[in-house]
Design brief:
Blueprint: E1 2-7, H1 12-22, E2 28-35, H2 39-49, E3 53-56, H3 62-68, E4 75-78, H4 82-88, E5 94-97, H5 105-113, E6 117-120, H6 123-139, E7 144-146, H7 149-158, E8 166-173, H8 183-187, H9 191-194, H10 204-212, H11 214-227, E9 234-238, E10 244-250, E11 255-259, H12 265-273, H13 304-315, H14 319-335, H15 341-354, H16 363-383
Parallel strand pairs: 1-2, 1-5, 2-3, 3-4, 5-6, 6-7, 8-9
Antiparallel strand pairs: 8-10, 10-11
The structure holds NADPH dihydro-nicotinamide-adenine-dinucleotide phosphate, 1-deoxy-D-xylulose-5-phosphate and manganese (II) ion.
């Protein structure tokens, strides 16, 4: 029996993980669940899975959750700091980080220090402080098992390949809803259009990131830390069908790919079960449904975010933390109709130039960079000055 804490149980990854867990009650037990503002769903999940603890980070929702769970043994906590309590809870074997954004950093660090294995969906944590996280995981003998579909693909391709060096990896990108479009088209796109991902149903933030190719930029940085690679060893290839989830090319020239229908249940199921594989009834891939699989070079001139992410990766230090924080601000601003699609990249680039560079950041430097960048980016958005 694996005891699991899910940070972000009310989101797209969190709810799918709970479905996987509900289908395998002999294998998994939920000990903690967390949500931000969706009190009703958190209450429903708590009554169904009976964890020992729930956390609602939006403190205004505390009383609602507390009252609804009053007749149970479930401890109810509120506020961001309480995420760390859900991450370190005694008896938890695996923490699924399914929160969105850099708010995942502190509870992930707490979980690793408490020697909990991590099923990592929250890619922003590795983008912000991948050096600290991977070092801490090594020191504490903690496994970081990727949930992100591309990284799960690479991880699966590497099973049994210890000691065989990777020449390079290819992360596949769907290209998003605006694949093939030019800058003049992108200037006029709406959030409703950007939220229509061609292949995956996901939370709003990652869906906008997919449309702007920032998701692939964040994933390039995530891959650097998960698989200990240099920027030149990580390539992105646009593959509109999202059937091949990513590929590894070894030093003998041989390539391994992992494929399947685009369904997050698969990588979630794999990460929870690792190192086992557990039977599932998820939809199977059928070759005749896909007579063609296509591959293209990404257009880095139009979709500048991917280029900016490579620049940040090559520069090192706190630069990836800067682009992550700036991106979180601009995605929120775009979703609130405060800036246009193309302007998101303008603000991110201005932050990369305007925020102080730190070559060897400490955790405090990362936290400061994150908050300074958010303030700087928000001012740029408000003043429309970028
Ligand atoms: N969705 C997907 O298919 C994939 C997602 N990922 C990554 O997984 C992570 C989660 O994505 P996704 O599930 O789509 O996101 P969602 O927006 O669907 O869910 C986010 C979750 O985080 C909670 N949350 C939001 N803001 C805060 C906050 N400030 N403090 C604490 N908790 C918060 C939400 O709570 P509430 O609902 O109460 O607001 C919700 O439970 C992201 O990092 C994403 O990049 C990676 C690969 C695929
Ligand atoms: C399901 C998943 O892992 C997402 O990160 C997905 O890959 C997004 O698709 P894009 O390839 O469009 O960014
Ligand atoms: Mn992905």
């Amino acid at each position: 029996m694996k005891n699991i804490s899910i940070l972000g149980s009310t989101g797209s990854v969190g709810t799918q993980a709970l479905n996987v867990i509900a289908a395998n009650p002999d294998l998994y037990r939920i000990l903690a669940l967390t949500a931000h503002a969706n009190a009703n769903l958190l209450i429903e999940q708590a009554l169904k899975f009976k964890p020992s603890m729930v956390v609602v980070t939006d403190e205004s929702k505390y009383q609602t959750v507390k009252d609804a769970l009053a007749g149970t043994d479930i401890k109810v906590l509120a506020g961001e700091a309480a995420l760390c309590e859900a991450a370190v809870l005694e008896g938890v074997d695996l923490v699924l980080t399914a929160i969105v954004g850099s708010v995942g950093l502190r509870p992930t660090i707490a979980a690793i220090k408490a020697k909990k294995d991590i099923a990592l969906a929250n890619k922003e944590t590795l983008v912000v402080a991948g050096d600290l996280i991977t070092e801490l995981a090594k020191e504490n003998g903690v496994k970081i098992i990727p949930v992100d579909s591309e990284h799960s693909a690479i991880f699966q391709c590497l099973v049994g390949e210890a000691g065989h060096s990777i020449e390079k990896i290819y992360l596949t990108a769907s290209g998003g809803p605006f694949r093939g479009k030019d800058i003049s088209f992108l200037k006029g796109v709406t959030k409703a259009e950007a939220l229509k991902h061609p292949n995956w149903v996901m939370g709003a933030k990652i869906t906008i990131d997919s449309a702007s190719l920032m998701n692939k930029g964040l994933e390039v940085i995530e891959a650097k830390w998960l698989f200990d690679l240099e920027a030149d060893q990580i390539d992105v290839i646009v593959h509109p069908q999202s059937i091949i989830h990513s590929l590894v090319q070894f030093h003998d020239g041989s390539m391994k790919a992992q494929m399947g229908v685009p369904d997050m249940n698969l990588p979630i199921h794999y990460a929870l079960a690792y190192p086992d594989r557990i039977s599932s009834d998820f939809k199977r891939f059928n070759f005749v449904d896909y007579p063609e699989l296509n591959f293209f070079k990404p257009d880095l001139k139009t979709f500048r975010n991917l280029d900016l992410a490579y620049t940040a990766l090559r520069k090192g230090g706190n630069m990836a933390c800067i682009i992550n924080a700036a991106n979180e601000v601009v995605v929120e601003a775009f979703l609130q109709d405060k800036i246009g699609f193309i302007e998101m990249s303008d603000v991110i680039e201005a932050c990369m130039e305007g925020i102080e560079f730190v070559e060897k950041p400490s955790l405090n430097n990362y936290l400061e960079t994150d908050s300074h960048t958010r303030i700087f980016a928000s001012q740029l958005v408000t003043k429309k000055n970028f």
